[in-house]
Write a structure and sequence with these properties.
By secondary structure, this protein is mainly α. The protein folds into two domains: about 5-80, no CATH class; about 125-230. Helix content is about 65%, strand content about 0%. Strands 1-2 form a two-stranded antiparallel sheet. A hairpin with a 6-residue loop joins strand 1 and strand 2 (about 25). The longest helix has about 90 residues, at about 105-200.
Length: about 230
């Protein structure tokens, strides 16, 4: 674990523990005894701790060497640049301009290119026409969808209004049924009692047909009211 070389360049056969600085053959099976000791300075810290004074000094020396080497390289490069000024400059490159007429394109080839360009322009115009139609159709579809949403919203509002009316009517009907049950049925009982008493007055026997019909009427009215109240 010395400084200044790579692991493959190290001549040490055993492996050094970074915790206790002990050299062992198999670091995976090694267990430190709790004593922390730096290999470089002997202080109580790991051997790879960047706060180690030996490592700090080594890094400072290495940085100084690199900076010195860079400065020397720049100086050498500048001297080489200065030496190039002693040579005469090269003449500028000769660029020969050619006109289109110098290519001597055959007339048939020119006509073929013009025909192809015309076809390309026709295709572009056709494509623009198709895009225009698609845009119009898209606009029509969007307008139809907007109208449909508007109509659906109106119908939904109408349905909600009908549902509210239904709830209101059912509430009123239920209230009326309750009133009938509380008022009409007791009155009907009183009427039947009076009629029964009149029927048997002066020692006359009760008409069996009247008795059965009155009970049937009362039961039918009661069943109807119960059915309406359950709706």
């Amino acid at each position: 674990m010395g400084l200044g070389h790579f692991r493959r360049q190290c001549k040490q056969t055993n492996t050094t523990c970074k915790v206790c600085s002990e050299q062992v053959k198999d670091l995976a099976n090694h267990q430190s005894q709790g004593v922390v000791k730096c290999l470089h300075c002997g202080d109580a810290h790991y051997s790879n701790d960047l706060k180690c004074k030996v490592i700090k000094q080594f890094r400072a020396d290495l940085t100084g060497s690199l900076l010195s080497l860079t400065s020397k390289s720049n100086s050498l490069f500048n001297r080489q640049l200065d030496s190039t000024t002693e040579f005469p400059p090269l003449p500028p490159p000769q660029i020969r301009k050619q006109s289109i007429d110098e290519h001597h394109m055959p007339l048939n080839a020119q006509n073929g290119i013009i025909i192809k360009l015309g076809r390309i322009l026709n295709s572009i115009n056709h494509f623009k026409h198709v895009i225009g139609n698609l845009t119009k159709r898209t606009g029509a579809i969007e307008e139809w969808m907007d109208n449909k949403k508007k109509n659906d919203s109106e119908k939904e509002n109408e349905i909600k209004a009908l549902q509210r009316d239904k709830v209101r009517v059912e509430g009123e009907l239920r209230h009326q049924m309750q009133v009938i049950e509380k008022i009409f049925l007791p009155v009907l009982d009183d009427i039947l009692i009076v009629l029964t008493e009149l029927n048997i007055k002066d020692g006359r026997t009760l008409n069996a047909d009247f008795n059965s019909k009155s009970g049937l009427w009362k039961n039918e009215i009661k069943a109807y009211l119960d059915k309406r109240l359950k709706l």
